[in-house]
Amino acid sequence: MKNILLLVHDDHGQEARLQAALDITRAVEGHLTCIDVTPYPLIAGDGFGFAETVVVLDERESEAKNKSVISDRLSREDVSWSWIDAMDEIANAVLDAADLADLIILNRALDGFPMPDMRDIASRIVARASAPVLAVPETLERFELERALVAWDGRPSAAAALRAAVPLLAFAKEVEIFTAQGPDNHIAPEEAATYLSRHGIKANVRKTDIGKFHADFLISDEATMFRADYMVMGAYGRGRLRETFGGTTKNLLTESKFPLLMSH
What we know:
Layout: E1 3-8, H1 14-28, E2 31-38, H2 50-75, E3 80-87, H3 90-97, E4 103-107, H4 118-128, E5 133-136, E6 147-151, H5 156-169, E7 174-181, H6 189-197, E8 204-209, H7 215-226, E9 230-234, H8 247-255, E10 260-263
Parallel strand pairs: 1-2, 1-4, 2-3, 4-5, 6-7, 6-9, 7-8, 9-10
Antiparallel strand pairs: 5-10
Helix pairs in contact: 3-4
């Protein structure tokens, strides 16, 4: 994991995204690519008229100021970085830049700020990107690497997320593989722990019965008790098309207190 792709956009989640990106880039001694997106205006009507032009000009001015601030800050940080300017819908712009990314850093939903719709953006990107997505809450001040919770359901998406997370899990002092037992666990959590052990990563397995609880509640509760710094999880519920937003993923991307490293 050396190539980190960061969404740069002047919104309430930007500082958390940037801090996570800097912490991870330093840890892996990688390169940070910033994609600064000026979104197309979402205005009803045919054609690209005066109102749309005004919105675009305002967005360009705002992002130009934002670029100046962020570039100045990055020039004083001890990381390798580069910059891409894009004008497109945010998810499309990030996907276009993500082919050679090892990790994409976004937000989960922004509390109290419906636009940009980070939950939708993250869900669309994780559905289509080959790289994993890290979605952080806007309250994040520092991305810690010491305690990782792996939410395990034994399905290919969980295995993909686990494989993608290995470079970060290697920094962890404690890793827990947490599973709500069910008849459809394709790969046992013990097999996941064995896989990690071959990478020199020790992981403990904890099982619970799902009962009447929703999976997102159980995962969040376990992450709190474990004092997780971040969570690793597959991105979709069972029986869903790959492009469809799974219920557990949707709920966690709405309100998780913990950064989510996701893959499909």
